[in-house]
Amino acid sequence: MAGALIEVTALRFRWPGASSPCLDIERLSIDAGQRVFVFGPSGSGKSTLLALLAGVMTAQQGSVRVLGTELSSLKGRDHFRVDHVGFIFQQFNLVPYLSTVQNVLLPCRFSRQRARRAAETHGSPHEAALHLLDAMGLGASLRRRKATELSVGQQQRVAAARALIGTPELIIADEPTSSLDADARQAFLDLLERQCDRFGSTLLFVSHDRQLAATFDREVNLPAINRVVPEGSAS
Amino acid sequence: MRHLLTLAIASAWNRRFTLTLTVAAIAFSVAMLLGVERARYAAHESFAHSISGTDLVVGPRTSPVQLMLYAVFRLGEATTNMKWTSYEDLAQNADVAWIVPLSIGDSHHGFPVVGTTPAYFEHYRYGLSRPLALSSGRPFEGLFETVLGAEVALREHSRPGDKITLSHGASEFGAEHADKPFTVVGVLERTGTPVDRSVHVSLESMEAIHLEWQGGTRIPGLSIPPRFARKFDLAPKEITAALIGLKVRGRVFQVQRAINDYAAEPLVAIVPGVALNELWSIVGVVENTLLLVSSMIVVIGLSGMIVAMWAGINERRRELAILRSVGASPVAVIVLLALEGFLLTTLGLGLGFGLLTVFSLAAAPWMQARFGVVLPAWPTGAQEIGLVGLVFAAGLLAALLPALRACRLSIADGLTPRI
Predict the structure, then answer these.
(1) pTM of this prediction?
(2) Same structural domain for residues B287 and B316?
(3) Same domain, B31 and B92
(4) Host domain of residue B143
(5) Going by C-beta distance under 8 Å and a sequence separation of 6 or more, which residues neighbour residue A7?
(6) pLDDT given at position A229
């Protein structure tokens, strides 16, 4: 897919009840297939930007286009999200009462498109889930385990497998490595990048840890493009 | 929808210890509500069938409810009597198939004594036209013989061959007719009607024990031993009421009018079914109160569910954010929680139903022996189905409260719950 996967123009977002906006971005464009490192200290609006890109929230002003679709006016944003975006959170990524495999399969339950694509590549969503868990270095012994019985590093890798299943165009990772130690951090990053490359997914990786930026195609410094001065940082 | 149900079940199973308590609370409240409804139904049925097969109840002119109270329920006392000659007149009436006289007023340890004729055992009907049956012994024949209702026999531990004494008046502390003891000759089977509480004697026995009485007190110095009682004229002079069966039921209103217009004495004839309904409407206040109280218990049970689900949401904000990230819409969040409410309510209803059934079956022999009424083990009618539907709807509605809160929270949280 050529051209911009994400197009943000004249975006202004204010939390309900807040007096001043927390995001004010003139322009942000991310090409398809790119691996982008979004850097910003905490409070710089990273999570808010991700929520807007995922269509969980909508901006009061401006335009957010993902895959050429204007999100703020889109009716089935939740459906669009699961069809096209894979999400990895900072921690507590897994639904505690589901097994490892069931957690990976969640997007296929909510999206027919993800289920179909997973079946196309691996025969069935279930096979795809097992394959992805293998690829993320999680052996057969862990598949039937409850999510809560896994280590934090294992949980993050299950979350990555879930984000990747059914090859969504965009993978958004919100500080996925901040709860991992240094070795595990790099190993996780390598696995994630390899899988994104394989499927041609665009990776949007958000972190406050600039050391990780080395292997990415591009680095976006959020404070540099966000014209809002974060509260507290002025002093 | 199906994957949401799977999720709802898995999530509920994950919190099964808390939710089991919730389901138990709903189950007990439902069992209580339906139990009260069934008891009400059974009581009404038994009440409405306290007497059947009798077309008219006749007595001295009084209010129908009062006549029913003492003639059928043997409660209270008649203020006036009707003459024996009127009874004989009625017996001659061409429309009358049978007539049973009742003479009420004395008691035995608080149980009402009914003076009557052997025709009573032949014609008295209760329930759906069930005749009286003796569980032991025989009907009374001679003087100073008595047939006890099942409740009397049970409470007094009396068996055929035992001797009992009657008291004057309905109160337990009336003067005893101790000089003329009665022999128990028979005990009736349980009917679940006031018959169970009655002590039956012949009209002649009734006259005999009152030989030396006048105007409610004993004539001083006069004492007639039982063996001489036979020598007196024991033909009854007065009775309290009479039960009448007609040859043709369709004639009931003509006969009723004729009796109400009876010239020799002011009498009243009432149709038992109509009067029973009138009486029940008085008792109805109690039944509605019971139903209201048990409804409140269901409300408390469902409140428990709201509390459990509401408290659960805070623990589940992270989980809901994950579900949102994989495509669950705010509506899906509501559906997920509503499904949980549906599951809990359905389980509670089912379990409550089961509990009640097991209880009614297990307690049936004991209840039959103790009260003469059995709690129905199966649904009793439209009103009960209606109650079940109401509980179900209330359960879903109750679940909507936490569901809406979960939806609001998950919209506000987006993908990053601030806990």
Answers:
(1) 0.75
(2) yes
(3) no
(4) 56-270
(5) A28, A29, A63, A64, A65
(6) 64
